[in-house]
Amino acid sequence: MPTSTRRLVELSMVPELAKEVATLETATKIASVATVATPDATDEATAITLVNALKARLNALITALKA
């Protein structure tokens, strides 16, 4: 667990679910999930593209955490 996350948990500044996630061995599970490379949205069409990219990455992270 990263030091900053550990410190927040120690200070009880994160919700219970975050505490559970922080204790998981997630580094290797999510290491292969890429960051979102989609540019910032400037109009409706690019906002939709960005949201779809974020959804795809979120689903990838959830899948990795379930593995």
Order of helices and strands: HHHH
Mean pLDDT across residues: 75
Number of helices: 4
Largest sheet: none
User: How much helix is in the residues?
Assistant: 55-70%
Taking Cα atoms only, what radius of gyration do you get, to the nearest Å?
A: 15 Å
SS strand fraction:
under 5%
Number of strands: 0
Total discrete domains: 2
Outline the low-pLDDT stretches: none
Q: Termini, distance in Å?
A: 18 Å
Report the principal-axis shape: elongated
Look at the helices and sheets and give the structural class: mainly alpha
What would you note in describing this structure?
The chain folds into two domains: 1-26, no CATH class; 32-67. Helix content is 64%, strand content 0%. The protein contains four helices and no strands. The longest helix has 23 residues, at 44-66. The two termini are 18 Å apart.
